[in-house]
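Per reviewer request, we include the raw input and output of the structure prediction for the construct analysed in the revised manuscript.
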Amino acid sequence: MAEEATLMKTSSFMDPFKGFLLTYLIPESCYDEFFIKFNLLDVPCLKILISKGLGIGIILGSVMVKLPQILKMMGAKSAEGLSFQSVLLELVAITGTMAYSITNEFPFSAWGEAFFLMLQTITIGFLIQHYTGRTGRGGVFVLVYLGLLFLVLSPITPTSMVTTMQAFNMPAVIVSRLIQAATNFRNGHTGQLSAISVFLLFAGSLARIFTSLQETGDTLMALTYVISSCCNGLIALQVAYYWNSSSERKKRKKRKKKD
């Protein structure tokens, strides 16, 4: 009787949180393990909790991950050092991940950041065109992309094509990052590339390797994030390497403006 009373009390105490926990973090079996049996070291349930927590954290972080990049460009009124071709290929990769995940009905926590990254990447693409004197072309770019996105997500696009898009993500990510890396190397600095955005993208892609394996079990999706992590790591290394040269360049610009 005492044991039943304890279980009822525990269950009653967690009732206000149960709906949220079951919807976003853990299945009911894990809820029982953690909050009724108090088995807080159950490994399968811990993996699920960590994966879901990371997924939600990545999605929340993705809302602002490229915001420093956008603000840096707008503040400088320049797109110096940023490659539009790199942005296009990155957009292809993001769109492929979104379409593949939606088609396979993966949970939003496994891919949701792609939606927010897509919006921010479109903005960066437009700003690159705008600050290089091609605002009209930037507007056309946004409209064409949104039209293609609607087409890809519509039922008329066959599943096989969506899977092909996801497979194309790997070469798209590699080429995208290599173009940006080559631009950085050629310039001898990273220009208006935001260090905050670069390092956040690197951390997010690393975390996604674990969450994609845990939540989707899809090796193609996990492999995409492995490749993405390696490529983002390359850009992060360049940002660190060119840090001093970028600072010196900014100082020289300030001196010229004063003179």
